[in-house]
Write a structure and sequence with these properties.
alpha/beta; eight-stranded parallel beta barrel; 8 strands; binds 3-methyl-2-oxobutanoic acid; about 40% helix; globular; TIM Barrel; about 15% strand
Length: about 270
């Protein structure tokens, strides 16, 4: 029964209170959204990771708001049960509060997402609060924040020293006070993520942050073995769809070249009237 009920933002807080973990995966198109919906995934994140796995860039920096709206619309069209959250890409929420609210509004209104996600801690808390005030649900994202790859000097683990860990806890608390409904904790020591999770009322969703979070997220292309770029150590690969696609495409090409496809049963024949 629960499987077919739309996941809504207040449900997530109840999940945390009841100790029931939240399963989130990225999705970028309607077909994948329908499949992940059938699998009972709670949250579909239209991540700006699409810059890397869909568009072929090395980072998420070149992703535009238009691209995010386009993919969010496709995922929202496919998902009937999961909560759809869309990323605000690089520099769409830093210039001014008004611009940030308008950009977030596009992901909701044109993209069909139920909520937006934005990277950063205390420095983005004020704009997060403004969005929440404007009626836009916001998910936070701290730890490794890929949009800051150049400032950080690479995709580096966060919170390794005590002051860094304290800063992450502070960031999480400030975001919670700003009204975000959940926070992604990316690539940090498990102990730090567990401490943040214990001190917040809102749920945490971990990626490379250990088992102590209230939920987990993975980039679906990594989890399903569809991305042949760098796979971080924290990824568990649940399938090898990339190899299956290569094998299927090879079999198709051999059939075409050998004259075995199309066969009789794939051929439309119309009797002349
Ligand atoms: O863009 C993305 O896919 C993300 C997840 C890795 C959390 O932000």
């Amino acid at each position: 029964m629960e499987h077919f009920t739309r996941v809504r933002i207040p449900d997530l807080m109840q999940r945390k209170a009841a100790g029931r973990k939240i399963a989130m995966l990225t999705a970028y198109d309607a077909t994948m959204a329908r499949l992940l919906d059938r699998a009972g995934i709670d949250i579909l994140l239209v991540g700006d990771s699409l810059g890397m796995v869909i568009q072929g860039y090395d980072t998420t920096i070149p992703v535009t708001l238009d691209a995010m709206v386009h993919h969010a619309r496709a995922v929202a069209n496919g998902a009937k049960r999961a909560l759809v959250v869309a990323d605000l890409p690089f520099l769409t929420y830093q210039v001014s509060d008004a611009e940030a609210i308008r950009n977030a509004g596009r992901l909701i209104q044109d993209g069909g997402a139920a909520a937006v996600k934005m990277e950063g801690g205390a420095p983005v808390a004020r704009v997060a609060a403004k969005m929440v005030e404007a009626g836009i649900p916001v998910m936070g994202h701290i730890g490794l924040t890929p949009q800051a790859v150049h400032r950080l000097g690479g995709f580096r683990i966060a919170g390794k020293t005590e002051p860094e860990a304290e800063q992450l806890l502070e960031d999480a608390k400030v975001l919670e006070a700003a009204g975000v409904f959940a926070i992604v904790l990316e690539l940090m020591p498990a102990g730090v993520a567990a401490r943040i999770t214990a001190e917040l009322k809102i749920p945490t969703i971990g990626i490379g942050a250990g088992a102590g979070c209230d939920g987990q997220v993975l980039v679906s292309y990594d989890a399903f073995g569809m991305f042949d770029g760098f796979a971080p150590k924290f990824v568990k690969q649940y399938a090898n769809l990339g190899e299956q696609v290569v094998a299927a495409a090879q079999a198709y090409a051999e059939d075409v070249r050998g004259g075995r496809f199309p066969a009789e049963e794939h051929t439309v024949s119309v009797k002349p009237k």
